[in-house]
Amino acid sequence: MDINNIELKLKACKIKLVAFDVDGVMTDGSLTFDENGVEYKTFNAKDGQGVVMLNRHGFKTAIITARDNGTVSCRAKTLGITKLFMGQKNKEAALMDLCEEFNVTFDEIAYMGDDLPDLCVLNKVGLPCCPNDAVCEVKDVALFISSKNGGRGAVRELCDFILKAQGLIM
């Protein structure tokens, strides 16, 4: 991916809503459980700051994840995520809900996913994105492929790219 690509920047200029998968995107994909089966996740602070900056500039933000985990709802609240879909097995339905609720078209949505369940969304949005360590099938459809891995700055790189393309940050 060439972030200096004019076509890619033009697509980024249209974005009004940015949505993310969690495992492998906002985290490194590791699943940690304690002896009672409680699941823990580790998030990147710089990724979080990217999401906060999007919110401050008026973007809608969303999480669409198939897993249902209290850590995710806590993180979403901390970051000011506009809309949270947890336990969402049909990610395409969540995408349709976002379009309706926020009156946006597919072309106005960026989505970052990393694995096969994300393909149904990535194939529809205007700016399909993925971390550097996404599976090959996802990389094949992504227009923005971060130089960073999931949970290691990929989210922040995308947020910065969109904000810069729209002239909102230097």
Write the layout of secondary structure elements.
Layout: H1 6-13, E1 17-20, E2 32-33, E3 39-40, H2 45-56, E4 60-64, H3 70-79, E5 83-85, H4 91-102, E6 109-112, H5 119-122, E7 127-130, H6 136-141, E8 144-145, H7 154-165
Parallel strand pairs: 1-4, 1-6, 4-5, 6-7, 7-8
Antiparallel strand pairs: 2-3
Helix pairs in contact: 1-7, 2-7
Task: List the main descriptive attributes of the protein structure presented here.
single chain, 170 residues, alpha/beta, Rossmann fold, six-stranded parallel β-sheet, 15% strand, globular
Number of helices: 7
Strand runs, count: 8
Summed up, the domain count is 1
Q: What is the mean predicted local confidence, pLDDT?
A: 95
Strand content: 15-25%
Return residue spans where pLDDT drops below 50 for at least 5 consecutive residues: none
At the fold tier of CATH, the topology name is Rossmann fold
Report helical residue fraction.
25-40%
Derived structural class: alpha/beta
Order of helices and strands: HEEEHEHEHEHEHEH
Rg (C-alpha, Å): 15 Å
Distance between the termini: 20 Å
Give a quick account of the main beta sheet: strands, pairing sense, barrel closure.
6 strands, parallel
- What shape does the CA trace take? globular
Strand order of the largest sheet: 5-4-1-6-7-8
Give the name of the CATH architecture: 3-Layer(aba) Sandwich
CATH superfamily: HAD superfamily/HAD-like
